[in-house]
Amino acid sequence: MKEKPSLILCASGHIPLGAGETEYENLYSKEIKPLISSLDKFPDINIAFHYSGVLLYWIERRHPEFFMLLGDLLNRKQAELLGGGFYNPMLSIIPSIDKIGQMEMLTTYLRKHFGKRPLGCWLPPMSWEQSLVSSLNACGMNYVFLEEEMFLSAGVKAGEGGFFYPCITEDQGSLIIAFPIARKAGNDLCSNGFENKINKIHENLSKENKTGRNGIALLPITNELYEPNFYDGLFEKLSSMNSEFEFNLPSRIYKNLKDLKKVYFSGRDSDCSNPRHFLANYPEAGGIYAKSVYVHTLIKNRLRGDKARKRIAFEELWKAQDSGLFRIGCPSSSGLFHSSVRKAAYRALLESEKLTREKGKFHPSLSLFDYDLDGEGEYIFQDEKVNCCITTRGASVFELDYLPASWNYLDTMSLNPGTERRNAFNEWLAPENLKSEDINSEGIRGGYFCGNDTYDVLEMDRIRRLVKFRLVPDIGGQWADMEIQKNWQLKKNILTLEYVLRNTGDDSKTFSFCPQMDLSFPGMDDKFIRLFSLREDNGSSVREAVDPGEIDSINEVKILEFQDIVNETIINLESNKAGNCRIFNIFNEEGGYQSTSIIYLFPVSIDSGKTWKLAFSLKMYS
Fold this sequence. Notes:
- It is a single chain.
- The protein is α+β, with helices and mostly antiparallel strands.
- It folds into two domains: 265 residues, 7-stranded beta/alpha barrel (Alpha-Beta Barrel); 215 residues, Beta-galactosidase, Chain A, domain 5.
- The protein has 14 helices and 29 strands.
- The strands form five sheets. Strands 15, 18, 19, 20, 21, 22, 23, 24, 25, 26, 27, 28 and 29 form a 13-stranded antiparallel beta sheet that branches.
- β21 and β22 form a beta hairpin.
- α1 packs parallel to α9.
- The protein starts with 5 loop residues before the first strand and ends with a strand.
């Protein structure tokens, strides 16, 4: 008797850590729950599930009844659960200990709640590299699901019906079976008019049998438009074709697959997508990745003999390896452009980093090493409560951590993807009679931006925790003779910056000097932040409350006080000279509020051979 072709349905779900409750609830109530409910009505339909640990943990707390429904499907062998990393990480770019740790964490969770160990693995897009085979094998995974484009890129030819057949792949003697995900066929199946699509899939799978082996199609299904009763209709049609298909699960058939072709997969699909390209193109993602590499090193070096703290530190670190950081995101699906997703990653990294510090024995330090993995050394100030990272590019701050709140106040996002990160204390040289309309959140019209220039290092004093930088702009024109020196120091959790501008030319210079800095808060309205200014008015100091959602210009200001309500933190930004400033809140369509940009304006007049000085201090406290 001729065997029927096998149809394997699969469903997956993941929402990045830090996404809002509404996004979780929509996925559960409009996609996951209807799918499970429909399967209960059609016991002849089988399905393989992959839900990330993040999503399952949320469901456990909000909808514990779901675990009973899913458990029933598993007990009657109508469904199977697939493994993977607990936080759905980009496995290809994290250390082996993290790969195995994350996969074991999800496996342990599934065994605890459902009494079953996964035999196969689901990976996020772009996550494959051939070396993963050894890690997957070590975690007890017998098969993995890969996009069918990867089969095509590896030189595998589709069968007569257009479907790829499972292959076997290897790394250092470890073997694993790769099932091809028929993504296009799955999308077609879930589009309108799926009745005709099912017949077409059966026709194409039947052609595969002419090769002498049973046709297999692994179709991902999803109700992306959240149509009511979608799964009831789909499963009713599939059930009516029960005599044409063998509804199967990979756990049932993988041991019986014979004469599999051995293939090595490059990890690239037809679009040559690669997570490392994403890191290079989006420096905000690259910054989180570099921080995770740094924290991983701290855990290994500082917690060698403390297994309990080491385990907790790793589990915090793993939260920052979420694959959601490798997609831009949109209003209905969180990603890198969503501030809350990035902030959840930084919070986890800082919690992990704090665990590597011995209580009562921390010594403030200044060190030089390649913190952001760009081939150049960065200057890292560390105090009991504050971390500050300074790059020679602009001699500016690119990470500013307040450890008691586990918050990076420089988790910013550029409005123009792929451009440089928005740092703190970059400066502009601008014309003397600068108009208000010439200043915006992206900079100053007609001004020269020094933030893209590389400063020379004049001095590094580890004892005093002091670094001095100097820039001689190579630009010609009216600023050709200006020399800028920046002296950074972190002492007793207070970050100070002294500017020394020197006129090396023969003529006096009159212009506007405009330091610019970004700070990133939980939000920018009175639920998240309160803002006060201390300005000078006729020789008297005046403290005024400022509406954080309506800020524009503040004149003769010496102190800006930001009260972060969520983190219960106060940030004082003080200058030794009164100056005008403009403040802009940065938003983008995908992720809402990103940061607050502050641009100061100081009039400067310097005679030949003379200097002009300006000092800032930034203090954070609870």
